[in-house]
Write a structure and sequence with these properties.
The complex is a heterodimer of chains A (291) and B (418). Chain A has 291 residues and is of the alpha/beta class. Chain A has one domain: TIM Barrel (Alpha-Beta Barrel). Helix content of chain A is 43%, strand content 13%. Chain A has 12 helices and 9 strands. In chain A, α3 runs parallel beside α12 and α10 crosses α12. The two termini of chain A are 27 Å apart. Chain B contains 14 helices and 14 strands. A 6-stranded mixed β-sheet of chain B has the order 3-4-14-9-10-13, sandwiched between helices. Chain B has a 4-stranded antiparallel β-sheet with strand order 1-2-12-11. In chain B, β1 and β2 form a beta hairpin. In chain B, α4 packs parallel to α5. Chain B is globular. The N and C termini of chain B lie far apart (60 Å). The chains are: A alpha/beta (291), B alpha/beta (418). The interface between A and B is large, with 41 and 40 residues.
């Protein structure tokens, strides 16, 4: 049922020789296509729904999935993602539950999966334990929002032998020296934050993005994806003309919030949530892939 | 190239205290680590602005003009030095150690918070930021920030949990009268932690035009160091005053610890005097049960929250636990990182007082000394009431009376059914 054949070049089970993120970007580059990176909160509305939503996003044309790890104090997130985290915590979402969900996803899909998280849940789980269990479940990378490269010494960082890609953030406020240092150490892809602020949809596209991408590319061959505030196919197309990939988060999370609510008795029956999300994501995928 | 490798210049008066491993220009290190605590755990967007702030603060504290302007404001505007008052009737009532109160409650705006707000607003002006923001729990830091913003003609927005706005309504009105916008934070538990989250979200969005006047010795570097330095005058004065009045150093210092700014301000000038005990008093709430207190050193676990690595009240999944205290200013799940460090080194000790003990201390001090303390400071008084009778009559305690209790009168009235 899933279009997994198109999005993968290797087997769907067991250890893979190369990281799925690297493989996906290599394949897209060869096809001269840009990546659609989609973010949703794991466990929203509940963890049982998460694999269905990931498969639906893949069907719509998503190339990489970021799964949010819910945290009680998401200080880099706007209200849409804050509420999603609250729903996910309410539904009992934990890292072990997310690993189970990824194993479930992997039964049908090789789409690259990145966990996007705040540091404290990983510290509590143990960085070594996290790396081991995430790899074993089939996670490909991790983006830790509040862990700058300066703090990744000793027990705080991922173990040296971790196979997880450590996705780095670069911001509009990052001066050139920091860009050089972060870009030089990055792997998987670089997440360029398109504007100062928290996550959430905006109506415009910052014009500084293309210059900043040039600066990043002076220091790194790693693909650069752009996120924060991108919600419409037009915005996505513009960004995709500059970047290696486009990250859409809050716009999808807001749809999950709206369509994931328990049905009100007597209301007209709506299509299932994964179908609605897939149809919402499809025009975004087309815009990004046609750029 | 380290912005803090040079010897720190005291912001206010020079201290006579000897040097010590606890007070060194290398604590914290150049990126804000007190041993394994502290640091800069923030999203990338804030890293460069925090490094700029660190560098600007380092230039300012070595600038004689900055130090002179701050000294003048602290003396002529805020009312420093504050008295060190011998609480004779309280001492006689308890029948043990002599109790001195460091009267930060007599400062302009009614609490120690003005020391830091003045220092930081001068920095904001130096950096050319036309807008300041703050979080507040009890409202004392919000009032201090609104006050200095008015004094310097800056736009001011204060984030405050909706629950705290209800229990500290007087301070909300004061902030609005001072021209600040007070934004109610309705996420989560609607108290101080959520107000900090919301202030950080504002800052990350408006960082080019805005300085965040963080109000306690917590968060990312350079705040724990900078806020400590701006409050160090509390301990410097107290040390000089007790030497004048008693001819010797005190046996112990007692201060309440929410984030821990008034405590570190008192302790820091005494850290090299290793015979002086430093006792921090956390909020014991209804007792040490999950969700019913804010005593991070009773059941807290090392973690990272809001920029710093320190002791946190958290669950087994690393989510931050609910807290409770009668005092809005102590009702917070993390403790300032330097307190975690001093505790690990056993240079400071941390106790707690329950809501009931704090409320009793509030009334005791009012009746015996004619001083109505803030509910926060009442926790420190409560601990003095606990230990003074166990000490000899020639022992000396210095209690930081960090704020006055006018703001708490309505809440206490309801609780006591007056």
């Amino acid at each position: 049922m899933q279009s997994t054949v198109e999005s993968t070049t290797f087997t769907t089970t067991g250890t893979v020789a190369i990281n799925r993120i690297d493989a996906t970007f290599a394949r897209l580059k060869a096809a001269n296509r840009k990546a659609f990176v989609a973010y949703i909160m794991a466990g929203d509305p509940n963890l049982a729904a998460t694999p269905d939503l990931v498969w639906a996003l893949e069907e719509a044309g998503v190339d990489v999935v970021e799964l949010g790890v819910p945290f009680s104090d998401p200080l880099a997130d706007g209200v849409v993602n804050q509420l999603a985290a609250a729903r996910a915590l309410e539904s009992g979402t934990t890292l072990p539950g997310m690993f189970d969900a990824v194993r479930n996803i992997r039964a049908k899909s090789n789409i690259p999966i990145v966990f996007m998280t705040y540091l404290n849940p990983l510290l509590r789980y143990g960085m070594g334990n996290f790396s081991r269990d995430a790899e074993a479940a089939g996670v490909d990378g991790v983006l830790i929002v509040d862990l700058p490269p300066e703090e990744t010494a000793g027990e705080i960082g991922l173990p040296a032998d971790s196979m997880l890609r450590n996705i780095s953030l670069i911001a509009p406020t990052s001066p050139e020296a920091r860009i050089a240092s972060i870009a030089g150490k990055s792997s998987g892809f670089i997440y360029y934050v398109s504007r100062e602020g928290v996550t959430g949809a905006r109506s415009d596209v910052p014009t500084s993005v293309s210059e900043r991408l040039e600066a990043i590319r002076r220091y790194s061959q790693v693909p650069v994806c752009v996120g924060f505030g991108i919600s419409t196919p037009d915005q996505a197309r513009t960004i995709a003309s500059w970047a290696d990939g486009v990250i859409v988060g809050s716009a999808l999370v807001a749809r999950v919030a709206e369509w994931g609510k328990p049905a009100t008795p007597g209301a007209a029956e709506q299509p299932p949530l994964p179908v609605l999300l897939r149809e919402f994501a499809r025009p975004l995928a087309e815009a990004i892939h046609s750029a | 190239m380290s912005p803090v490798a040079t010897a720190p210049a005291p912001v206010v008066a020079a201290s006579a205290a000897p040097s010590s491993p606890f007070v060194s220009p290398h604590i914290p290190d150049a990126t804000g680590h007190f041993g394994k605590y502290g640091g800069m755990f923030v999203p990338e967007t804030l890293m460069a602005p925090l490094q700029e702030l660190t560098a600007e603060y380092d230039r300012a504290r070595q600038d004689p003009a900055f130090r002179a302007e701050l000294k003048d404001l602290l003396e002529q505007y805020a009312g420093r030095a504050t008295p060190l008052y011998f609480a004779k009737r309280l001492t006689d009532h308890l029948g043990g150690a002599k109790i001195y109160l460091k009267r930060e409650d007599l400062l302009h705006t009614g609490a120690h918070k003005i020391n830091n707000a003045l220092g930081q607003v001068l920095l904001a002006v130096r950096m050319g930021k036309p807008r300041v923001i703050a979080e507040t729990g009890a409202g004392q830091h919000g009032v201090a920030t609104a006050t200095v913003a008015a004094r310097f003609g800056l736009k001011c927005v204060v984030y405050m949990g909706a629950v705290d706005m209800e229990r500290q309504a007087l301070n909300v009105t004061r902030m609005r009268l001072l021209g600040a916008e007070v934004v109610a934070v309705t996420a989560g538990q609607q108290t101080l932690k959520e107000a900090v989250n919301e202030a950080m979200r504002d800052w990350v969005t408006n960082v080019r035009t805005t300085h965040y006047i963080l109000g306690s010795a917590l968060g990312s570097h350079p705040y724990p160091m900078m806020v400590r330095d701006f409050h160090r005058c509390i301990g410097e004065e107290a040390r000089r005053q007790i030497l004048e009045q008693e001819g010797r150093l005190p046996d112990a210092l007692i201060a309440c610890v929410g984030g821990g700014s008034n405590a570190i301000g008192l302790f820091h000038a005494f850290l090299a005097d290793e015979k002086v005990r430093c006792i921090g008093v956390e909020a014991g709430g209804d007792g040490i049960l999950p969700g019913r207190h804010a005593a991070r050193f009773q059941g807290g676990v090392l973690g990272v929250l809001q920029g710093a690595r320190t002791y946190l009240l958290q669950d087994e999944n690393g989510n931050i636990q609910l807290t409770h205290s009668v005092s809005a200013g102590l009702d917070y799940a993390a403790v300032g990182p330097e307190h975690s460090y001093l505790r690990e080194l056993r240079r400071a000790e941390y106790e707690y007082a329950t809501d009931t003990e704090a409320l009793n201390a509030f009334q005791t001090l009012a009746r015996l000394e004619g001083i109505i303390p803030a509910l926060e400071s009442s926790h420190a008084v409560a601990h003095a009431i606990k230990i003074a009778p166990t000490m000899p009559k020639d022992a000396v305690l210095v209690v930081n009376l960090s704020g006055r209790g006018d703001k708490d009168v309505d809440q206490v009235k309801r609780m006591l059914g007056m």
